[in-house]
Amino acid sequence: MLIDMNVYFTGTVDATDSQKAVNLVIHDPNGKLVLITGTVSKPDGSFQITINTDDHDPVLTCRNI
Q1: Is the dihedral of CA 39, 6, 10, 44 positive or negative?
Q2: With helix as H, strand as E and coil as C, how does 16-52 read?
Q3: How far does CA 20 lie from the centroid of its chain?
Q4: What is the distance between the alpha carbons of residues 47 and 63, in angstroms, rounded to a whole number?
Q5: Is the terminal CB of the chain with fewer CB neighbours within 10 Å at N or C?
Q6: Domain segments of the chain: what residues?
Q7: CB 41: neighbour CB atoms within 10 A?
Q8: End-to-end CA distance of the chain
């Protein structure tokens, strides 16, 4: 039985980096580095990146919050 689950990365970037691309690097369960990249952060610098863990090849999305 698979559980449909999302992992959310939220945060803010420095004011000088607002409205620029947000990049995130994590270690996957196999110890490999995974680069997660998305769209631009909001003018206030906030962002949210969502990973659906139900997928074998996770669908990565970045959206403004």
Answers
A1: positive
A2: HHCCCEEEEEEECCCCCEEEEEEEECCCCCEEEEEEE
A3: 14
A4: 6
A5: N
A6: 6-63
A7: 23
A8: 31
Q: What tens digit of pLDDT does each residue of 14-62 get?
A: 999 999 998 888 888 888 888 876 778 999 999 988 877 765 555 555 5
* DSSP annotation of 64: -
- Per DSSP, the three-state class of 11 is strand
Per-residue pLDDT of 3-26, as tens digits, reads 668 888 899 999 999 999 988 888
| Tokens describing residue 53 | 């863990």
Look at the pTM and tell me if it is higher than 0.90.
no
DSSP state of 60: E
